[in-house]
Amino acid sequence: MKYLVGVLVVFVIILTGTVSYLAGRQNITLAPSPLPTSTAIALATAVPTSSPTTQMVQGGGVLSFPRYELTLPANWTIKREVPGPDSEKIVLDGGTLGLTILQGGFGGSVCLFPGNPDSEGPSARYIAYVEITNRSGDKFRRVTPENGKGFGLCQLSQYNWNTPTFYGAISLKTPTSPTTEELNTIDNILASLTKL
């Protein structure tokens, strides 16, 4: 008789656990994960604005990166690429000018400027910059590397200037010798970047 109570308690515990497991399992719906692709498709979230000279683009929301929107000239093309289930690449092309925003898993580095001491770990040194504040209040620097060719983008975090930005890795495309007007176009697009 003394063993019967113990056996019944163990039986009730096992039965409760089994029923709970099966009931919980019934409520779980597993969606098939998309297969990795590298196709370029028109961005479905391009939203027309009231201005005939500009267009709104939305993207992002991959992993820990935020969703965002930005404004660019109406004659630019927009492509969305999905290299894998946890990444998104938005390609904004204005001919000789362009931006690419990549969200996914990757590392980063510290941006160093004249007067900054060397840093342990990954870093890149830049000789000049233009500071840009976007609509969400984030501070960026469009930077020129030590070799003086091309541009990059760094963002001010809690501690340092870093790349990639909180929005992802942002690449800038410009001619070899861009005009002030071309650089202003790029800077205005970056300034329009807004977290959703």
Task: Please render the helix and strand layout as text.
Blueprint: H1 2-26, E1 40-42, E2 47-48, E3 54-60, E4 67-73, E5 77-81, E6 88-94, E7 97-103, E8 109-112, E9 123-133, E10 139-145, E11 152-156, E12 161-163, E13 169-173, H2 180-191, E14 194-195
Parallel strand pairs: 8-9
Antiparallel strand pairs: 1-5, 2-3, 3-4, 4-14, 5-6, 6-7, 7-13, 8-12, 9-10, 10-11, 11-12
Helix content: 10-25%
Structural class: alpha+beta
Number of helices: 2
Give the C-alpha Rg.
Answer: 25 Å
Largest sheet, described in full? 5 strands, antiparallel
How far is the first residue's CA from the last residue's CA? 66 Å
How much of the residues is beta strand, in percent? Answer: 35-45%
Number of domains: 2
- Low-confidence spans: pLDDT under 50, at least 5 residues? 22-50
User: What's the helix-strand series?
Assistant: HEEEEEEEEEEEEEHE
Q: What is the topology, as strand order, of the major beta sheet?
A: 1-5-6-7-13
Mean pLDDT: 82
How would you describe the shape?
Answer: extended
Extended strand count: 14
Oligomer: single chain
Characterize the structure shown:
This protein is of the alpha+beta class and 196 residues long. It has two domains: 1-30; 40-195, no CATH class. It has two helices and 14 strands. It has helices spanning 2-26, 180-191; strands at residues 40-42, 47-48, 54-60, 67-73, 77-81, 88-94, 97-103, 109-112, 123-133, 139-145, 152-156, 161-163, 169-173, 194-195. The radius of gyration is 25 Å and the shape is extended.
Q: Could you write a compact summary of the structure shown?
A:
The protein has 196 residues and is an alpha+beta fold.
